[in-house]
Amino acid sequence: MRFAALSALWLAATAWAAVERSDDGNVRSIQLRTHTLKQPYLDSDMASRWYDFGGDTIVRTDSYIRLASERPSQNGWLFSRVPLTATNWEIEVEFKISGKNSLFGDGFAMWLTKDRGEAGPVFGHKNNFEGLGIFVDTYKNNRPGTVFPYVMAMVGDGKTTYNKDNDGKDQELAGCSARGLRNSKTPTKLRLTYFQDKSLKLELMYKTEDEWQLCFETNEPPTIPSVTYLGFSSETGELSDNHDIISIEAKNLYTTGGSSSKQPTTSGRGNSFKPAQGQSGGSWTWFIFKVILFFLVIGGGYVGYTAYRTNQKRTHRF
Ligand SMILES: [Ca+2]
């Protein structure tokens, strides 16, 4: 089975190509293919290998995945099939909320939750969820003094209930107003970056193309369950709008240390804080990681080839 060795080498080569360096030299990223979704979204079997959808979700392979349309009482979802297991990650989503109505709603949610594909009243997903929800809320139910659309994060522990009547004000972790996000002439995107025990940051793009606005950043990020699915959902009631996901790009982030990396002191939350690894000699950590990966791949290919030879000898014998 020379093929096994060759395919292992090919995998290694593509893994290499997917590694990116960031500007500050301390954070590197690898694309998570399992959580990335782009046009045409579906393969030849009219299904997606990595994502599943349901409810009123419509897939237009050349344009978008529409979670809820400009019609009353729509409810749709899109969820990853496999959990997101990366410790640190970045998820960038291009979306579009649009419509002709002067009164519209309700918005959509992005999820990192234990549950997947369960319809319910929180932007189309179940209430009392466990994990993190990011809500892009376009309809102000009752939150005086706040400009809508309003984008907010909520952390659910499985018991806390999202209160739609005041747009989740009491359950809010952090958020921001995003006037002009709906029916924007430029592409609209969100980018959520999570470093376990270190930071959670949400950025938005809706005013000018390629210009990110910081929505919030916290150095006390929530604990996200170890098994979480990445998902999206949307719901319309009497008022409606089109809620589209255009693309999802997920990356695994690695901190490799370096001079400009901040080293926060021990947090007050017990032993949960893990400092960034390898502050001195960060490039060494990265080098050693690559060497180990290289030998693992070569070793894997060799083992596969030896097994094949042994198997062939046996086959010949009989
Ligand atoms: Ca609302």
TrEMBL record:
Residues 29-253 form the L-type lectin-like domain. The keyword Ribonucleoprotein does not apply. This is L-type lectin-like domain-containing protein. Keywords: Membrane, Signal, Transmembrane, Transmembrane helix. It is found in: Membrane. One of its GO terms (molecular function) is D-mannose binding. The chain crosses the membrane at residues 284-308. It is a single-pass type I membrane protein. One of its GO terms (biological process) is endoplasmic reticulum to Golgi vesicle-mediated transport. InterPro entries: ConA-like_dom_sf, Intracellular_Lectin-GPT, Lectin_leg. Gene3D superfamilies: 2.60.120.200. Residues 256-270 have a biased composition (Polar residues).
